[in-house]
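Good morning,

Both structures are done.
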Amino acid sequence: MSAPQSPVDWGEVPDPSAIGKPRREFDGWRVLRIVVCTFGLLSLAFWGYLAWPFPMPGILFMIGAPVFAALVWYLFRSEASPIETDVVGKTIVEVALVVAAGACWVSIGHPVVGLVFILVAALSGVVQFRREAR
């Protein structure tokens, strides 16, 4: 049984259970963005583990570097940022964090991984900024 309809409404009657629920579509670029951010944070943690002597400075850098990067990302780059930042500021923050994660790989002796990460992150960043500019 369908809901009563005005004689002026000529379109289809929407499903009442679907009203107010956003439709989620698969977004491959968003998945890539999440993978890039996660890999960047894991790269900083891995660098802290390999580049610094364990236990004391190693643990500090292994935990501190990704936490610091995530905090900077949240404060200046995320959509829920409490600090209003323009496009140039967001770009500077993103480039600095991506280069830092790529440099971690170079410093531990894997420059190809660092270069590939920087290129994939740059592609992901360009697509994200184009979407935000709409």
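Second structure follows.
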Amino acid sequence: MVGTGAFLLMATACAGQDMPTSQPAAGGDSAAPTGSVSTSPSEPVPTANPPGKPRLTVPEGSTPVPANKIDASALPAGFPREVWTANGGTILNIRAQEGGCGHALGEAAEQSAGRVVVNLSETKAQTGQMCTMDIRYPVISVALAAPLDQRTVVLKTTPPQ
């Protein structure tokens, strides 16, 4: 009886939390979380996803980067190859891949006149931690020093951190 009560308490506590999906979101799912939203009239409501904070959907108002401006040849087979710009082209929103206890990360490793190289990685699970075997496809944001404009986005993966 005590075990059943503990299970129900845990299930009820988890019911109010947002659970990540295990498949890429189809464009325009507005029911997913959008990050922190201010309720104070004096604070601005953020419209872009802060760099480094994964989300389930692409921020509203983002513009897709044309496929011919994305070099994803270094990515493993099956890895997402979707990139959008926001904030006048100074933010890249990239569909990444993560699983279990890991979390997707992105870093602009190189920014030249012709290309922007983004290293995609995943945090490593802590030793001894039990993790699920699911795969998620969050959108991560990476800040650029200047607008992307006509530069090519080169996507690479790096070992877990």
